[in-house]
Amino acid sequence: xxxxxxxIIAFFLFFHSLVYADLYRFQPGDYIDLYVYNAPExxxxxxxxxxxxxxxxxxxxxxxxxxxxxxxxxxxxAAIGEYIKNPNIxxxxxxxxxxxxxxxxxxVFTISDSDKxxxxxALAGGFTPExxxxxxxxxxxxxMSISKDEILExxxxxxxxxxxxxxxxxxKFFTRSDYSLILSSVSAISVAVFYFSR
Length: 198
Fold this sequence. Notes:
Blueprint: H1 2-20, E1 31-36, E2 44-47, E3 53-56, E4 60-63, H2 69-80, E5 89-101, E6 107-112, H3 117-123, E7 131-139, E8 142-146, H4 148-152, E9 166-171, H5 176-196
Parallel strand pairs: 5-9
Antiparallel strand pairs: 1-2, 1-5, 3-4, 5-6, 7-8, 7-9
């Protein structure tokens, strides 16, 4: 009987680990968007610092690094519960992604896990005229090239940004500035040939 119970517990723990392995866990540099019902003084977007803690007004430091969103919810609710009886709270995980390449305003942006890549590109001011519309994503040590159609495809998992993504907007193979440069070069060569052939 004890052997069967041990097997059942082991199976449950294994199943639990599979379910929660892919859930995102807060890291330093991430943000928590916190809303506390009837307590505007506690609401806001709070950064998670290098010590793994978020600093809340009145409440103080709350450790959340390494926690899933549900675990952080429980921890924050317990901490806020020291000041407000049975607090009604909601939290949204936010994290940083970098946008580089041929966008108007390259930089680091704070987004939620429901933001699509095209929305992140919009935060960076959109593509420049030289951009091809395709991008390269560097994610967890892997490199992925994504076409414009894949970015815009409805419900495509490739269309959503992930924590720590580096998004690089690619350049067109041939741009208007390249065309202008070629024309200028051809004109200069033509003038030189004409001059030296006289």
